[in-house]
Amino acid sequence: MSELARTLPASWYCSSPLYQLERRAVFLKSWYLLGPVTRFQDVGEKVEYEIAQQAILAYRTSGDEPFPAPEEIEVICAKTEQPLRHHVTPTGLIFATVSDEAPSFHEYFPDLEPLLQRVDFTKRPYRRSINYEGRFNWKTMVDGYQECLHCQYTHPSFSVYYPPTFYEVHNHQNFSQHIADPKKPDDGLFLYFFPNCTLNVYGGGMSSFRVCPTENPNVTRMEFDYYHIKSGDEFEEYFKFVRQVAMEDYELCEKAQDNLATGVYSEGILNPMKENGVACF
Ligand SMILES: [Fe+2]
């Protein structure tokens, strides 16, 4: 049994000193998905992000095409207004750092861009964002995203489309790909980017969310951005479906956090097949 990966200790999900260590050792040294270039349509309109108490602003500097070219995107630190390193992928996703301590984009994600090639991220216009706080640690939500053992029980509507029987997670350096049905590998693109971003593309829709730690290790801010080929009823139908799944995860995380905080459970082993994504995280 010694070769099986184990969960993190429960106390790590409730500890302020551990979070301060995570900030320095992980969050200041990582890359974050801000969104596709279409998120930054209007020149000068600043979109604010806050990752581990580092506020950053991203915006379009110039141009009048429907969406900005890579050189028309700027990302700055909100406090110092100094530019931050960012990278626009060939198919239109913007990633950024929050400090100078991160390695280069290609060192951080050496094999990500070939996988992103199959989606043109400029084809799904930005529709809506939604943010709120939850009573759970940021790692509680990431643990849940990285496995689908909970899906059949927690997401009855999602499981109709993607039966969890086939679900696989393929781990790469600093990201994981979720494959809902190996027989249809091109049906959707579901990615987790270490430490706290996701991208979910399927049908005409696309969503991305950031699991943002607050200074309280028991509270996390969830930030969702939604995109869709269509506006109006078709978008609203998609939005209703994905919000339902998100609220099911939210409730599950609050309950899991209660259990982590009671002090009864410390740690356990992970299923090597079904929880390989959690082990990688
Ligand atoms: Fe879930």
TrEMBL record:
Its EC number is 1.14.15.7. Gene3D superfamilies: Naphthalene 1,2-dioxygenase Alpha Subunit, Chain A, domain 1, Rieske [2Fe-2S] iron-sulphur domain. Pathway: Amine and polyamine biosynthesis; betaine biosynthesis via choline pathway; betaine aldehyde from choline (monooxygenase route): step 1/1. SUPFAM superfamilies: Bet v1-like, ISP domain. It catalyses: choline + 2 reduced [2Fe-2S]-[ferredoxin] + O2 + 2 H(+) = betaine aldehyde hydrate + 2 oxidized [2Fe-2S]-[ferredoxin] + H2O. Residues 127-177, 186-281 form the Aromatic-ring-hydroxylating dioxygenase alpha subunit C-terminal domain. It comes from the Eukaryota. GO terms for molecular function: 2 iron, 2 sulfur cluster binding; choline monooxygenase activity; iron ion binding. Catalyzes the first step of the osmoprotectant glycine betaine synthesis. Belongs to the choline monooxygenase family. This is Choline monooxygenase, chloroplastic. It comes from Aspergillus nanangensis.
